[in-house]
Specification:
binds S-adenosylmethionine, binds iron/sulfur cluster
Length: 458
């Protein structure tokens, strides 16, 4: 039977995505792989023939959520008379492997982040009840080679994965174990995908990688030539017709090279927003985390970035309660935040991850101390975010309109600084860049008044 035959009988596909933007991208790619087999998205697991749970292993809470969701799916599978197929993908699948099937026998398939292209084959094997239900080999390039080159864009803003894995081995983090060694896609491969997105009306591309600024992809059509850096790649993508906006995430301070910083100043398509996780403001803790830089070096990078692109919005990640963190260390983090000023930040209590060096360290911090520190840090970060948003009142910003608002007659989109913006306007603005005067702000969004729309760049 060929793919056209199977496409005649649509089968329901429901993918639940946890965790980072790379997982969101991976879920989109799984939809692409499954489409030729006749799988079409449905809006709930109860209507699905195949449910994929795309998982995150970064903190213990995220992992436990997966097992509780699988318990719910088991009931739905029983109600379907066993017809539903349950697949677990992503980093929990990679880390737990067979243990997942042992703990929840209703699971049919387990596939790690480098095995999505094998989904069709695994589903076929499962339906014939032959062969392995587990695929957790690491082969990032094989995956990218095997995935369909064409993407189905879902709106005017899209993710594009350019780099995977990590060799940095921060002592708290599972990523190097679940996503494997650092690997970059070739510039040619990325260009094909970016052009296909642009042809479908995508105007903003977010380049993704666990350490996206460690990117070192093979140069276009030059076998064995020097690899390109992320700065070069951004300038190249900025030249693709229709692409007005470029973002990238997540970067590491150690890989923030001068050329990438310069690109923020000389490439207008690069949005004035940088997510640069620092984790802590204490040099002692940064060393114990194996981050490879000091707080002072972080401040130097921030100064250079602000020099290249005045007004750039800065985002970061923080961990409180890393083993051995004292009140003084925590105060150094608060000081770094006060000195830098963030537009948005993500902060977490340290979570002990089995198999990582920090899990075995002395001086694990009691939960109530972690709670108090997280509250204090988040209060400060909320104040900064509220102030950053309020600063936009009275400005006219270019908003990429991405969808209809919750209220009738409203649309919403993103500002160059990544803020959500709501304003009154017709739905045909979706996919366009609108000039909007900002008239209100809150912690999480802005409101504005529509002025005019701008067509896509040729
Ligand atoms: N590669 C990025 C970097 O180096 O900053 C971060 C990627 S990681 C998937 C996203 C965030 O999760 C980290 O920046 C960190 O703040 C948080 N994180 C990772 N491991 C953690 C742990 N064991 N406990 C708490 N937060 C953790
Ligand atoms: Fe994890 Fe550190 Fe690698 Fe980021 S750089 S993915 S935090 S090991």
């Amino acid at each position: 039977m060929n793919s056209t035959d199977t496409a005649k009988t649509p089968k329901g596909l429901f993918i639940r995505t946890y965790g980072c933007q790379m997982n969101v991208y991976d879920s989109e790619r799984m939809r692409d792989v499954l489409r030729p087999l006749g799988y079409a998205p449905v809006d709930g697991p109860e209507h699905a023939d195949l449910v994929v749970v795309n998982t995150c292993h970064i903190r213990e809470k995220a992992t436990e959520k997966v097992y509780s969701e699988l318990g719910q799916l088991k009931k739905l599978k029983e109600a379907s008379g066993g017809r539903m197929t349950i697949a677990v993908a992503g980093c929990v699948a990679q880390a737990e492997g067979e243990e997942l099937i042992r703990r929840q026998p209703a699971v049919d398939l387990v596939l790690g982040p480098q095995a999505y292209h094998k989904l069709p084959e695994m589903i076929a094997r499962a339906s014939r009840a032959v062969g392995d239900r587990l695929e957790t080999e690491f082969d990032t390039l094989e995956k990218f080679d095997a995935l369909p080159k064409a993407r189905n864009a879902d709106g005017p803003a899209a993710f594009l994965s350019v780099q995977e894995g990590c060799d940095k081995f921060c002592t708290f983090c599972v990523v190097p174990y679940t996503r494997g060694a650092e690997l970059s896609r070739s510039v040619d491969d990325i260009t094909v995908e970016a052009r296909s997105l642009a042809a479908q009306g995508v105007r903003e591309i977010s380049l993704l990688g666990q350490n996206v600024n460690a990117f070192h992809g093979a140069a276009p059509a030059i076998e064995g030539g020097p690899d390109w850096t992320l700065g070069q790649l951004c300038r190249h993508i900025a030249k693709i017709g229709g692409i007005d906006r470029i973002r990238y995430t997540t970067s590491h301070p150690r890989d923030m090279d001068d050329d990438l910083i310069a690109a923020h100043g000389d490439t207008p398509a690069m949005m004035p927003f940088l997510h640069l996780p620092v984790q802590s403001g204490s040099d002692r803790i940064l060393k114990a985390m194996n981050r490879g830089h000091t707080a002072g070096e972080f401040h130097e990078i921030v100064a250079k970035v602000r020099d290249a692109r005045p007004g750039i919005a800065l985002a970061s990640d923080f961990i409180v309660g890393f083993p051995g963190e004292t009140d003084l260390d925590f105060e150094a983090t608060m000081e770094l935040v006060r000195r830098t000023g963030f537009a948005i930040a993500y902060s977490f209590k340290y979570s002990q991850r089995p198999g990582t060096p920090a899990a075995e360290m002395f001086g694990q911090v009691p939960e109530d101390v972690k709670d108090a520190r997280l509250q204090a840090l988040q209060a400060l970060l909320r104040d900064q975010q509220t102030a950053f948003n309020a600063d936009q009142i009275g400005q006219t910003l270019d908003i990429l309109v991405t969808g209809k608002g919750r209220m009738a007659g409203q649309v919403h989109g993103r500002s160059p600084y990544m803020q959500a913006v709501h304003f009154d306007g017709p739905p045909d603005l979706i996919g366009q860049i609108a000039s909007v005067r900002i008239i209100g702000s809150s912690l999480n969004s802005l409101t504005g008044e529509f002025i005019t729309a701008r067509e896509a760049a040729a």
